[in-house]
Amino acid sequence: MNLADFDVLSFDCYGTLIDWETGIADVLVPWAKETGLDLSAEELLAAYARHEAQTVRDTPDALYSAVLAEAFRRTGAELGGPVSEQWAQRLGDSVPDWPAFADSADALASLARDYKLIILSNVHRAGFAGSNKHLGVEFDRIITAEDVKAYKPAPNHFEALDATLRELGVPRERLLHVAQSLFHDHVPARRHGLRSVWINRRHDRPGWGATPEPAERYSYDLEFPDLASFAAAAREAKTAG
After folding, report:
1. CA–CA dist 34, 55 (Å, integer)
2. Is 61 part of the annotated catalytic residue set?
3. Which of 12, 19, 114, 185 is labelled catalytic?
4. Which CATH number fits domain 3-19+99-240: 3.40.50.300, 3.90.550.10, 3.90.1150.30, 3.40.50.1000?
5. What would the pLDDT profile of 2-55 be if each residue is shown by its tens digit?
């Protein structure tokens, strides 16, 4: 696949650009310690992942801040640790504090030279506005769960993406989807007939972290361990092209 053949990149944000696992663990780990649960960050994230996935299926039109809080309560109920409203709100309000990956801002700045950039994210608008302060780039379009009233891997984001491409006058085959989560992004991208790149942020760690293991078929065209290496390959392709 020649990266020069694309004009638009759509991005998942959390897990791809923003380190959501660190952000979530920064709340779950001290909560577990306070409640006397002897669990590692990875164990807590794996439990949380199951409950977030179910929470968004149960309440697809809820704001992501409310999803975080409810998934935390359900995680606590499973693990046997009470989650007070203060702890639930702490996680629900934490999105703007989640750090960007070290390479995200520079890589996005490089990619913006050659591509239009679109956000396709399971978040509410206010949450992404806070996160975008860490990314430092102006996206051409932003599509959130709040906008489409659903959460990936539901098809709503990708249907909205098709409409956005028509607005931009860009043929569908000139779009490339870029994401970390096989469950949230590469399963529905395959279902939707989109080409995609896997940013395998967990390439050096076992397990699935805060992302559920995909139960459906997925595919991707290229794999990179981080965004910096993808941006370098894209820049090289555009320069050569």
Report:
1. 24
2. no
3. 12
4. 3.40.50.1000
5. 999 999 999 999 999 999 999 999 999 999 999 999 999 999 999 999 999 999
